[in-house]
Amino acid sequence: MKKILLSLLLLFSATLLYAQNNDVEMADQMRSSGKIYVVIATIVIIFIGLAIYLFTIDKRLKKIEREN
Amino acid sequence: MKFIYKSWWKLLAVVMVIYTLIAGLLLHVPALPILHETIRNLYFHVPMWMAMLVIFSISVFYSIQYLRTGKEEYDLIAVESVNTGVVFFIFGLVTGMIWAKYTWGDFWSNDPKQNSAAIAFLLYCAYLVLRNSIDEEQKRGKISAVYNIFAFPIMIVLIFILPRLTDSLHPGNGGNPAFGKYDLDSRMRIVLYPAFIAWPLIAVWIATLRYRIRLIENKRNTIE
């Protein structure tokens, strides 16, 4: 019994060691689960919003320039 | 100067930035220790400095033109370019600080790159203060143009040359590898180069908007 327990324990510790033996950690999992797209959507929406805002300022300015 | 009223290049800049936002987060990047995914900051942090550099170059060009011709519009272009450039300067500094926190361990570790960037920032703040402290228009234009022409090379030396000669931790400085080395698979270039074109265009766009507002203000002031 003791032998079996010990061997199991050693086996378990070996798997633990194995789990830590990763390469450089990257966001691969996040991408595979598809959630990076959420972030991209957020950033792109914000940027498109800002761009539209800039275009409207541009338009209004053109109007004022014509009046001047 | 007709092109500042055209919108095709503004749309181009917007489309290119959107492309870098998507491709910059999705495409493959080399897996490197310490950097991890922050290597993607290359697509967003470095273009801020590129935009700043382009806009300050435009400013110096028009400062020289102002000294040569004495046309007031050139002075206005120079000022509004610096005003816009300073904003991108702040973006560059802040994004760099966030990156430094998670790679170097501290927001501000007195790295030569950080310190000299801060000094260069003060240099341009001094330009704006100097300008606003002079009331007489021609005097203001001339003094600030001369200051601007001298500030530009000092900024270049401070940000791009001195940190390279010292032991800065910043990639590309003090013997550290720059993106040329990360880039062994040159796939990063297909995102970085469009970003290098798009962000300066955005900066130029904002500067032209400010310049056009300034022109109207100027016209009103002279009429009154």
From TrEMBL, chain A:
This is CcmD family protein. The chain crosses the membrane at residues 35-56. Keywords: Membrane, Signal, Transmembrane, Transmembrane helix. It comes from the Bacteria. Residues 1-19 form the signal peptide. The keyword Transmembrane applies. InterPro entries: Put_ccm (IPR030888). The keyword Transmembrane helix applies. Pfam families: CcmD_alt.
